[in-house]
Automatic annotation (TrEMBL):
Keyword Glycoprotein appears in the UniProt entry: no
Keywords attached to this entry: Metal-binding
Protein family (similarity comment): Belongs to the FAH family.
Gene3D superfamilies: Fumarylacetoacetase-like, C-terminal domain (3.90.850.10)
GO biological process, one term: carboxylic acid metabolic process
Taxonomic superkingdom: Bacteria
Annotated organism of origin: Sphingobium jiangsuense
Keyword Metal-binding included in the entry's annotation: yes
Fumarylacetoacetase-like C-terminal domain mapped to chain residues: 70-274
GO terms of molecular function: isomerase activity; metal ion binding
Protein name in the entry: 2-keto-4-pentenoate hydratase/2-oxohepta-3-ene-1,7-dioic acid hydratase in catechol pathway
Length: 278
């Protein structure tokens, strides 16, 4: 299975490539794209030749797309989560945004904001856009997808509820995990059968199939692309299943020292430790 990653080389310079066992194979071309996002935009990813090889231990992973122009997140997209929040299911998806500096890579620490003790996990499937799209129909939407990756929409619950808009609680720096790798749709098989599973310190806290989404991926892309154009490298986080820590009795929030994992079948496992904001 081909998995594409963004990373920093041993000399600190950014690069991108594919996983090959315990190594990273840099993808390169003379005068070619300098990032995974650029390769998607140029449509050259599958044609790039192998470059330098690095031991996985010698590089530092970056978020799958380190610099997305847009990160759009779907709220309340699983019925179990709608029910546990006590909210009313609406006719259209709830959409909010994150910023690129809110993302960290697989293996990098999630940062619990100093201003909250209600830092919650939200395991999700992320969609990465591969081609420009605007006002696309649901039936055509999958043609614009470059691939998928695990995502953890870490949330400061109290800040999320300061008012009716979610954004203040959803985009503190370093609070969202994204990785480890981009997996193309042709590698996955039956996407709907894969389960979004989140573990906190080894305890399974979320476990639901992607097929349980209220608004499927095609519908989400149709809805979002109706109000904003999407570009290669843009990211859509498709919503979290039931089981969030905020709605447990007693609540279960992330704290410094915790280990949180988001696993989505053969797409991969996103692992992050939690640290306090310095």
């Amino acid at each position: 299975m081909t998995k594409y990653v963004s990373f920093r080389r041993p000399d600190g310079a950014p690069g991108f490539g594919r996983l090959d066992g315990g190594e990273i194979v840099e993808l390169a071309a003379a005068g070619g794209p300098q990032s995974l996002k650029a390769a998607l935009a140029e449509g050259t990813l599958a044609a790039l030749k192998d470059g330098a090889r690095f031991a996985a231990a010698d590089i530092v992973l970056l978020p799958v797309i380190p610099d997305p122009a847009k990160i759009l997140c779907v709220g309340l997209n699983y019925a179990d989560h709608v029910k546990e929040t006590g909210r009313e299911q609406k006719e259209h998806p709830a959409i909010f945004v994150r910023y690129a500096d809110s993302l960290v890579a697989h293996g990098q620490p999630l940062v619990k904001p100093a201003v909250t003790d209600r830092f919650d996990y939200e395991g999700e499937l992320a969609v990465v856009i591969g081609k420009p799209c605007h006002k696309v129909k649901r039936a055509d939407a999958h043609a614009y997808i470059a691939g998928y990756a695990p995502f953890n929409d870490g949330s400061a619950r109290d800040w999320q509820r300061h008012n009716i808009q979610f954004t203040p609680g959803k985009t503190f720096p370093g609070t969202g995990g994204f990785g480890p790798a981009l997996v193309t749709p042709d590698e996955i098989g039956d996407l709907g059968a894969l389960r979004v599973q989140t573990r906190l310190n080894g305890q399974l806290v979320q476990d639901q199939p992607i097929a349980d989404m209220i608004w499927d991926i095609g519908t989400v892309i149709e809805y979002i692309s109706a109000f904003t154009p999407l570009a290669p490298g843009d990211v859509i986080a498709t919503g979290t299943p039931g089981g969030v820590g905020d709605k447990r009795t007693p609540p279960l929030y992330m704290k410094a020292g915790d280990k949180v994992e988001v696993e989505i079948g053969n797409i991969g496992i996103l692992t992050n430790r939690v640290i306090d904001e310095q």
